[in-house]
Amino acid sequence: MSRQIFNKTATVDGIDIFYREAGDRKNPALLLLHGDLPGASVMFKNLMIALSDRFYLVAPDYPGFGFSAFPDKEHFEYTFGNIARYINKFTDILGLKTFTIYLHDYGSVVGLRLCVDHPEKIERIIVQDGSAYDEGIGPQWDEILDYWHNPTSEKKAKVAGFLSEEGIKTQYEGGLPEKLLSRVSPELRMLDWELMKRPGNIDMQFELNCDLKNHIEMFPVFQEYFRTYQPPALIIWGKYDIYFSVEEALVIKETYLMPRFMSLMAVTRY
How far apart are alpha carbons 86 and 82 in whole angstroms? Predict the structure, then answer.
């Protein structure tokens, strides 16, 4: 069959959600939830082409991200919980009753809400550098954690540095040794920065990033989900990741009481 990606739009409660689709609907469904800010489903294009002969793949852009609508925050609540509600409705519109869910970075924050709120939909999980345990939150989080608990304008100016062209570049290249930098194509970070520059987007991205505080507070809820439902899992981690420690991958594995359902891989990012 043709390894073609189709670019489509679905309207969820009046908001247009852009998504990429590939593969035969008769195959197992894989919901790809993008990470990074202000990332989008474009990061999955190569993966979708590679797997389209075996899976039905769907990769949406969240509201305010990628090519989805960017509603004014007076009409849309930019929290991960609300984004998760829209993505859940999106799966209903597409008729995705059950699926494997890909949890990566922001996609983990959104996707774990789907897992907890709709466990009946989750057949399997794939975790790639997405945190649900304190072990994944290392000293690199100290400044942002301090800002959340004791916010000042000076601290905000310092921690908001990631919302810049150089900060976006760091999302792709941070932590990588020199020998691997040539494998990182520049077009994705360039597209990210162009989308970030839309009026109001930087402010929205900062406020949404601060909502990670609520995600961290929900760690016990996500851990209970793992223990209770134990969906078959594949864990992939980047050993050069400067945001989430690879130690978390081992902790997730230990959570599972049925090791036959777990496959663990610790790999380089590229």
Answer: 6
Residue ranges with strand state E in 56-159: 56-60, 99-104, 122-128
Select from 21, 241, 252, 254 the least CA-distant residue to 125: 252
Distance CA 189, CA 194 (A): 9
Structure-token pair, residue 262: 């777990």
Residue 193 pLDDT grade (very low, low, confident, very high; cuts 50, 70, 90): very high
SS3 (DSSP) at 6: strand
- Residue (of 54, 43, 58) closest to 5 by Cα position: 58
In DSSP terms, 59 is beta-bridged to 20
The reply to whether the predicted model has a pTM over 0.90 is: yes
Place of tokens 């670019």: 7
Q: Give backbone dihedrals phi and psi of 222, rounded to 5 degrees, phi first.
A: -65, -40
Which tens digits make up the pLDDT trace of 205-247?
999 999 999 999 999 999 999 999 999 999 988 888 888 888 8
Running DSSP on this structure, what letter comes out for residue 160?
G
